[in-house]
Structure formats: structure tokens, C-alpha cells
């Protein structure tokens, strides 16, 4: 029988709310975005640029500026977050450092003006008006429903965490010095105007944040002003700075970011230990001892380097000829820390099984497929000496929106685990828009029915 996954640290997909394509009401009027599917959403998000063009010409390569003179889109952007929203958010209880930063760019350096403890709106407005400070609000999707809706769809589309920050800057002021980030960035201009300067990367596709000195970055390769309704994209590593022009109203924009630590290098680091573990069980060459005193050498001898190269080539050959699921902690970390499905009301459909109980002759399909991952890893209940592989299913249906992208907040893994013998039956459910329980590749009818009931109880299976 399957067991609940233990808590851990840091066809047509069913929608958790009735589908209203291009009709979702926001405070600023009907949404201009297509929330019917992740791919449909992203296409509308970067419109009029086509998705194929975006990934061929811009993604991880160069910035994209989309200036759209569309009053309806501008009104929708303005509804996502306003300066006036800060009063009610402060009343709910937000704190300096965790939720809000107050800062200025002074002679090319960031000056933080945070107080201690809880943020009081009147003090925040005083720093904003008198000290010309920028207000940075962290992860507003925790409080603003439409940003939750947008970022949840983007997490489905990219298969990567999607965070956000709102920046509210007074006229004639700048909050941050020139810098680059380790994330892919999408900027939506919400209120007022913002003047941007982008520079060539010094570290293309950077893996960390860094401030850059003005005398090192040269002249901007792009300079422009964003207005409400506009969208800007730039790859990680792109040096940028932005200010609100003098004589205008304040500027508000939201930075939506993704693909942090999602490179091939990260994936290789994540999967290599599992590949070596399997190889060492089956191939004596991986169990043979390293040369005596290898760890005491200042430089690794040529013979040892050659042996290591040979073992790495063997791993590559094994991987190329295998169709097994790669054991991946990246999968688990993503699903454990991502947003739950967007829903209206109490979200009962995410925690209470709906419809009839599946039976052997039932036709079933997977629910919330974009919020579920399937992976194979050693049984965490057993010691290292006796570990057997299990199939783990993790999902985000019970994730807490309030802790999304908050770093040190405690998170919990939700899902099921099954014996490795169930992997082919689970792949059938994943890869088919609908399948009969009786057709699942398991030895007995009892195992087939038990698998279906377990997934249904977890709200992951629907009887058609």
C-alpha cells in the first residue's frame, strides 16, 4: 500500500476554478490574458510577439521591449498593485526586511532605510515623500490574487519557481544602483513611467546577483521609458538600472522572475549522485578503491584523471541507453515550494476528493497534472545499507500561498509513494488523457484498484 510522503525541508487539464477564457474579472476590468492553459497564457502575456519567436530570438539571448498603447491593458496592469494598496497591506501586518525594503541609490550604492519590526504606513509614506525612497514589496502574490493567478500559470509553463517584487519609486529618484540578477526577468509597468537603461552583460547567464560600477559598464545598449501596459524582458546577467523621471507622478512596476538555479549545470549536479549510486551497485569498476594517498596529493596524477574520465564516459553511456526516471531533488524542491493552483472560494476541490470512487471498470484521468511530479529515489525510511527504490509522487495542491518564495519559511512535502513495480502503471496514467483502471500494468486487480483509489483520495484522479 502507498504511504504518505514524509514532511521535508526547504489530455485537457482540469481547472480548479470554472474556465472563463479572457473573461476573468480583475479590479481593473476584464483580464487581457488567456488563463485557459499555461501555453495560452504565455502567448497572451508576450503578445503580439509569438512564442516561437520569443524562444528563438530572445530567451537567454537579448532583451525584448514590448510597448503597447492599449488603455484596457494599462488599466489591468494598474489594478495588479497600486501605491494606495500599501495602506491596507500594512494594516494586515507586514515587516521590514521580510516583506518590505525601503532604499535609495546614493552615488552608485544602495542605501537601506529600513526601520525595525512592523511597517507603519505613515512612516512608509514619510520616507517615500521626504527621503525620495523606493519601496520594494517582496512577493506580493501572497496578498494579491491576480498576481497569484499570473505567477501560478507561469510556474506551470516554465516548470520553475516564479517570484515577484513590486518597486514604487518617487519622481526624480532611483532605488537601486546598476546591477545584474541570476534570474530571467519580466517587467510589467503598473503606474506612472520609468526610465530604463540596459547594458551588455559582463557575466552572461549569471548565477549570482552583483552590483556593477558605473565606470565599468560602458554605454547603454538600450534606453527607453516604460508606461502602464508595457512589458520588458531581459536574460539573467543583463546589467540594468531604472529611475522615475522628474516632474512626473511616482512609478510602480512589478518584476516577475524565474529560472533561478535551473541550468544544465544545476540539473547535472542534482542527478549525478543517483546515476553513480546505480552504477556502483551494478558495475564493480565504480566500487574499486581509489589509489592510495590520492587525497594527500597536491595535484591529481594523470592516471587517476584518466580513470575518472573513463568512469564519467561510462555514466554517459548508461544514461543515453536508459529510459528510467531520473531521481531529482530539483523536482521535489520545485513542487514543494511552488504556488498552489489558483482557485476561488475555499478551494475544497484541492483537499476533498470529488465524484465517485474509482473501481476496476472505471475510466480515469489525472487531475492537476501541471502541479504533480513523479520521481524515483531510494526509500527514505530505510538505512543506506538496505535502501530500495520507490516511486514518489509530489504535488502542490496543499501548498501554502502565504509562504511562497519566502526562503526560510518551513515547507512540507505532500504526496504518495509506491513500490518501484508501480512505475509503469503510473506512467500510463500520466501519459494518457484517459485510461481504464483494468488496463493498468500491475499483476493483480487488487493492486490496480488500490493504486486508483490512493490517487483519487489524494484528489489527483477523476472518474470520467
Description:
The chain is of the alpha+beta class and 464 residues long. Helix content is 28%, strand content 22%. The chain has helices spanning 38-45, 51-57, 71-80, 85-92, 121-130, 145-158, 214-217, 264-282, 302-320, 329-337, 423-431, 445-457; strands at residues 3-4, 25-26, 29-30, 64-66, 100-106, 109-112, 134-138, 162-169, 179-180, 184-191, 194-199, 210-211, 222-226, 231-234, 239-243, 251-258, 363-366, 372-378, 389-395, 414-419, 435-436, 461-463. The strands form 6 sheets. Strands 4-14-10-16-8-7-5-6 form an 8-stranded antiparallel sheet. It has a 4-stranded antiparallel sheet with strand order 1-20-19-18. A hairpin with a 2-residue loop joins strand 2 and strand 3. It is globular, with a radius of gyration of 25 Å. Residues 1-27 have low confidence and may be disordered.
Quickly list its features.
globular; alpha+beta; 464 residues; eight-stranded antiparallel β-sheet; four-stranded antiparallel β-sheet
Topology:
Layout: E1 3-4, E2 25-26, E3 29-30, H1 38-45, H2 51-57, E4 64-66, H3 71-80, H4 85-92, E5 100-106, E6 109-112, H5 121-130, E7 134-138, H6 145-158, E8 162-169, E9 179-180, E10 184-191, E11 194-199, E12 210-211, H7 214-217, E13 222-226, E14 231-234, E15 239-243, E16 251-258, H8 264-282, H9 302-320, H10 329-337, E17 363-366, E18 372-378, E19 389-395, E20 414-419, H11 423-431, E21 435-436, H12 445-457, E22 461-463
Antiparallel strand pairs: 1-20, 2-3, 4-14, 5-6, 5-7, 7-8, 8-16, 9-12, 10-14, 10-16, 11-13, 11-15, 17-21, 17-22, 18-19, 19-20
Helix pairs in contact: 1-6
